[in-house]
Amino acid sequence: MADLTRLPRGRHFFANPGPTNIPDSIQHALSHASVDFMDGGFLTLYEGCVAGLKRVLKTTQEVFLYTGSGHAAWEACLVNLLSAGDRVLIIESGHFSQSWARMAIDLGIEVQVVAADWRRGAEIAAVQAALAADTGHAIKAVCAVHNETATGAVLPLAQIRAALDATGHPALFLADTISSLGSMDFRMDEWGVDAAVGGSQKGLMLPVGMSFTGVSAKAMAAHAGSKLPKHYFSWTNMLGRRHRSFVGTVPVTLFYGLAEALRLIEEEGLEQVFARHSRLAEGVRRCVRHWSGNKGPALFCESRDRLSDSVTAVLMPEGHNAEAVRRTALQRFNVSIGGGLGPLSGKVFRIGHLGDLNEPMILGTLGAVEMALRIEGVPHAPGGVGAAMAYLAEA
Q1: Among 69, 122, 167, 343, which one is least packed by beta carbons within 10 Å?
Q2: What domains can be seen in the chain, in order of their start residue?
Q3: pTM of the shown model
Q4: Considering only CA atoms, which of 32, 323, 313, 268 is closest in space to residue 150?
Q5: What CA–CA distance (Å, rounded) separates 19 from 17?
Q6: What is the pLDDT of residues 241-281, one digit of tens each?
Q7: Average pLDDT in the 267-296 region?
Q8: Beta-carbon neighbour count of residue 66 at 10 Å?
Q9: Burial class (CB in 10 A: 0-12, 13-18, 19+), 54
Q10: 350 is in an annotated binding site
């Protein structure tokens, strides 16, 4: 592990796919003194934050919040909607779909998986076939990771909703938006998502520690019959509280930060935020495609219509370790990029391009990575940064 006290001088470039950079104005907002979470002024701020989250989720329905990472919101989603022995259909997308499946199994839920090639993504026809074959409607929920952070690939949620509708299947539709919300378009109500899981530390540009679930009326009806044990995560318990969330102390300072994050997002404009992410993501992809010209690193995701606008996973050439590149980028150039997760450990490095980022930050990151490739003797076609520059100058 790098000694962070002996890094090169200059500003640390943080290009991990989460947590993400925290803008200065949000850091200042987070330094707000503690206040009584039942104070009228705080309640007004809190209600404004919940309304803002609904605008980002594009929902008018219920939102519940928790002190915990995105995994906490996953668990809240499962225990509030399901009972022991219920079956869920997990659409395989990578490390995080596997994690969600393991959690469900630990909670006593039966898991059925729609298998997928991680580099190409799940076939929607296979999802529809699994739903059509379930004539007894044993599947109670379909779980989809909108943006798989480990592979840099997205799932087309609107197409999954269409598969549910085409088969007339009544299963709930659950979506993980942790690394897509606030970075890529997400439409909870329009896409018929029944429970949307989100977290604070990615597109919302906050520290880790707060997560939330958008919940449809259909999901609230299912919640009434759920029998899995729950207390802190119980939506019924939350509805009885003034904040309609948080069974216990409310993390007040995070809400001052969230208010500022929502202000920044809406000041830029949500559609403009998506366009910026799309532009920066394509710049990164142009660079990686150039590097691949000499049997060098390549985009891990091979499906052009599934490429993520919040993170790019880069597959190393055979015989070369991604961790060596990451180590050199950090120790020599003070640039932090993400590593491979699960079976992709050592095979992939990941460049996050979500949250508070612009062109110079992306180009600086790509320049450091290209130098690290050269230092580590990784084959690549030099000039990838120039390819990114050429695109970004015209985009």
Answers
A1: 343
A2: 24-266 (3.40.640.10), 270-394 (3.90.1150.10)
A3: 0.96
A4: 313
A5: 6
A6: 999 999 999 999 999 999 999 999 999 999 999 999 999 99
A7: 98
A8: 24
A9: middle
A10: yes
